[in-house]
Design goal:
Blueprint (H helix, E strand, L loop, with lengths): L5 H52 L16 E10 L12 E11 L6 E7 L28 E7 L2 H4 L3 E3 L11 E9 L1
Parallel strand pairs: 2-5, 3-6
Antiparallel strand pairs: 1-2, 1-4, 2-3, 4-6
């Protein structure tokens, strides 16, 4: 049995320390190579999270008047109700939206004929209290042909309304945009 002397033990311990330091230094360099990418990812993640929270918390009325989160445009026009193609069905049968034709007399679509979908047009706008309350508003009580209305419109009907749509103009005009009426007030 060989007994190591003090110098040999000291040399062996020192060699192990050097090897350990080299391994630690190598691991530290590898970690630092990955660190900038990790910081960038972390910053991007924090930024996106804060942006999503701001959009989610910000009330709908405080957002831009010109656009909605889904990318649709919102506009306010004054228009004359030109045509109600037939009598809408009773409201107690099912939930539906009914398309009417307007002639714009003021606003961004001035002098154009537009098609506007109204949710349950037999009910006054202020009396609608169901799931569509968020998307239907205003002070209009009755839709009568020839009346002038101030309308707040959204161009993204399909994102707002997924239910039954009664559109009697579809047979003659499929290409025109159908707007969703967010608010209807007497002009």
């Amino acid at each position: 049995m060989r007994v190591a002397n003090r110098t040999e033990c000291h040399a062996a311990t020192r060699l192990q320390q050097i090897r350990g330091t080299v391994i630690i230094a190598r691991a530290r360099r590898e970690f630092q190579k990955r660190l900038p990418m990790t910081r960038a990812r972390l910053l991007r993640l924090v930024f996106l999270t804060v942006a999503a929270l701001v959009v989610a918390v910000l009330p709908r009325s405080a957002r831009s008047e010109g656009s909605e989160p889904g990318g649709s445009t919102v506009m306010v026009v004054t228009a004359k109700l030109v045509e109600i193609p037939s009598k809408p069905p009773p409201d107690d049968l099912y939930d539906y939206a009914y398309v009417m034709r307007y002639q714009v007399i003021g606003g961004p679509l001035d002098k154009q004929s537009i098609f506007v979908a109204h949710y349950k047009p037999l009910q006054p706008r202020a009396k609608i209290k169901d799931k569509m309350k968020e998307y239907v508003g205003g002070k209009l009580r009755v839709f009568s042909q020839g009346d002038v209305h101030r309308l707040k419109l959204s161009s993204d009907l399909k994102a707002i309304w997924k239910g039954a749509l009664i559109d009697e103009f579809n047979a003659t005009d499929r290409k025109s945009v159908r707007y969703w009426c967010l608010e209807a007030d007497p002009a």
